[in-house]
Specification:
single chain; about 290 residues; alpha+beta; six-stranded mixed beta sheet; three-stranded antiparallel beta sheet; 9 helices; 11 strands; about 35% helix
Length: about 290
């Protein structure tokens, strides 16, 4: 015969039934007030973030950020053990969400696919030591790179192999490193950005073409548009001079009031009027065709 439960056993059973797993912390800090190492670091970070707008323009399932905390465990959050990569990209996520930081348990367990740390003498040991171990063993981030904006020859990178261990990446002839997750090269580029000339970390496509920033695309389009307009204006002026010479040859002096009327016409209209000038019998008939 089954013995009735004691009060202690009933209380113990009630506690087991009512137990729920602890919820992740919600009082997260997303800004510790620490600035970037230098203005060069700030520009370098923003350049990497803006670089994603062109090659990933047709995608809404990615997020590119920088200098943001990544929370990956309750213990880390409680200990205020902040981890904020200078640049990272996460693929196959909702890119339309406005984020203060990257909270793994709010991102369906997704970690960054690519991380770049912009080193300085004071952070190099951590970036290539403790952080590298975390990105390899906890984040499992496939592609990790480090670069010191003040040292053009400092670019290094690792890729996660089939055994989930980082293997050093071998640079190509230009010194660039392949980024498998993005299908792009990561390398240096010398030029002027935000009025500062230096050697910057930039992305290149598979063929070796520099991935432009949005402002560079706009500038190039403006140059091309200006060149096209210049060519069209040159052709228009050439057609105008040809038409005036033809009219002078056929009909003598051309009244001065006719030229302003011709100047507002486009190239196709002027070319059509050349045919008219060759067929009409008088200047008056030509003017009637304008």
């Amino acid at each position: 015969m089954m013995q009735p439960q004691t009060a202690q056993e009933q209380e113990s059973q009630r506690q087991v039934v009512e137990w729920e797993p602890p919820m992740p912390p919600t009082d997260l800090i997303f800004d510790d007030g620490e600035p970037l190492e230098s203005n060069l670091h700030r520009i370098a970070m923003n350049v990497l973030i803006r670089s994603m707008l062109i090659p990933l323009a047709d995608r809404n399932d990615y997020f590119a950020g920088g200098n943001m905390f990544i929370y990956y465990s309750s213990t880390q959050a409680r200990n205020r053990d902040f981890r904020g990569p200078d640049f990272f990209v996460a693929l196959n996520v909702d890119g339309r969400t406005d984020r203060q930081g990257w909270v793994v348990w709010e991102e369906n367990g997704r970690y960054p696919d690519v991380i770049v740390e912009l080193m300085s003498p004071s952070t190099a040991a951590v970036d290539t030591g403790v952080k590298k171990d975390i990105y390899e063993q906890i984040f499992r981030t496939p592609d990790y790179y480090v670069f010191d904006p003040f040292d053009p020859n400092s670019l290094r990178g690792w890729h996660l192999d089939v055994n989930q261990q980082y293997q050093p990446l071998t640079p190509n002839e230009q010194g660039w490193l392949w980024c498998q997750r993005l299908g792009l090269w990561l390398g240096t580029w010398e030029g002027t950005l935000e009025r500062i000339t230096g050697v910057w970390l930039r992305f290149y496509d598979q063929a070796g073409n520099l991935i432009p920033l949005p402002e560079e695309v706009a500038q190039q389009q403006g140059i091309e548009q200006g060149l096209q307009q210049g060519i069209e204006q040159g052709l228009q002026q050439g057609a105008l001079r040809q038409l005036l010479r033809l009219l002078t040859t056929r009909f003598g002096d051309v009244p001065t009031e006719i030229e302003p009327r011709l100047q507002i016409l486009n190239l196709n209209q002027l070319e059509d009027l050349v045919e008219v000038a060759l067929t009409v019998g008088s200047l008056e008939q030509f003017v009637n065709q304008l």
